[in-house]
Design a protein that fits this description.
This protein is mostly helical. The protein has helices at residues 30-59, 67-74, 77-102, 106-111, 125-140, 145-155, 165-170; strands spanning 113-116, 173-176. A two-stranded antiparallel ribbon has the order 1-2.
């Protein structure tokens, strides 16, 4: 029996955990992706610190300087770029091989997720390292603009496809294994 149509009812939408491509892949949840990114960040810190010291030594910045000197350094744009560069280098040292060979960062590996194309195929190294991560890392280093681009990038995950801007740029999805 047909129910009468209520013109004042809220719109209805099917929300499925299956990707829209029809390849039968189960998309990773937003919360799982957030926890994976948090794990990646926590694991990055112990790698980025030695990289920071090595890069600082190469360009002649003394990180063992007095507190007053470090206060002055913290306001220096070159020092800020050094910290950003150390994070990028540390990220690629920590996750580069896994991303190229398995489509995973350590956080994704621990939580059982993988980066793939929407049809389920493997993502190439230039696409995952350059487009998916490199472009957004580069843009996020731009003063003022970078933080806003990063914020908008992350907010896109709340769309129906659960894809951040970096996923759309690289034509990738994150699936649960």
């Amino acid at each position: 029996m047909n129910e009468p149509r209520n013109p004042y009812a809220a719109p209805r939408a099917e929300v499925a955990d299956i990707d829209p491509s029809g390849a039968g892949l189960k998309l990773a949840s937003r919360s799982r992706r957030l926890v994976g990114a948090t794990i990646d960040t926590l694991l990055l810190v112990p790698v980025a610190i030695p990289v920071s010291f090595a890069l600082a030594a190469v360009i002649g910045i003394d990180l063992w300087a007095s507190e007053a000197e470090l206060d002055r350094l913290s306001e220096d744009p070159l020092f800020e770029r050094l910290c950003e560069l150390a994070s990028v280098v540390g990220f690629y040292l920590l996750n580069g091989w896994l991303l190229v060979t398995r489509g995973q960062t350590l956080g994704k590996l621990i939580l059982g997720m993988r980066i793939v194309h929407p049809d389920g195929s493997r993502v190439s190294a230039p696409r995952v390292l350059g487009l998916r991560y490199g472009v957004t890392m580069l843009i996020s280093c731009v003063p003022v603009v970078g933080i806003w681009v990063w914020f908008v990038n992350v907010l896109w995950i709340f769309g129906p496809q659960r894809r951040c801007l970096h996923d759309l740029l690289a034509n990738t999805i994150v699936i649960k294994l």
